[in-house]
Amino acid sequence: MKTVVFDLGGTLMQYVGMPYSWVDFYYKGFESIIQRYHLNISQTVIEKSVQMLKEFNPRISGREIEYSAEYIFTKVLEPWHMDISLQSCIKIFWSGLQLKAEIFPETMYILHTLKERGYAIAALTDLPSAMPDEIFKRDISELLGYFDYYISSSVAGYRKPNCRGLQMIAKKFTIPITELIFIGDEEKDRKTAYRANCQFIRIQRVEKQKGSINNLYELLEVLR
User: 13-15 and 101-103: which strand pairing?
Assistant: First the structure.
């Protein structure tokens, strides 16, 4: 049985209108907490929390080690000196961003077709920094039934290009890691596959380059 591994964001789905970095949305999330609990938090303290959250952002820090949402929010909300449930603050922060997940049009068909062809399908995704796994899984709930194995950076404990997630997938399916086929849209996905010495297929929906595909339909031709 051949095993394909999909990155999710930018490959099978996207958050509509989200920028490359989520930093611009941090203020909106913090403001949601402040409004919900009628808090009196100074702009100086808010700026400090935003800066701390930026330092956790892997696009900025380049970190591969993953930290839980609870760990990150404990740190960034510490200057607020408030006695409010951490879990409630996390939920309100992310609800306040009003994210809209969009599954790409061909995604469901491709996953269904690969299943019919006998492929095992795994998912390897980096969670948005400080987002709990349960929130992300809720947003991709219609995809989960197609995955024989789902690994997020929270589950693996590392973010790409660390290949720990691919190692876990290979172990799950009891196959050499070199036999995995990893499909993703970013340079860090390519580097992850390179570190694992497995096949990589890059999807570039906007600016296709030589050797890449520009939609998932082309994947069916490549995997023949």
Answer: antiparallel
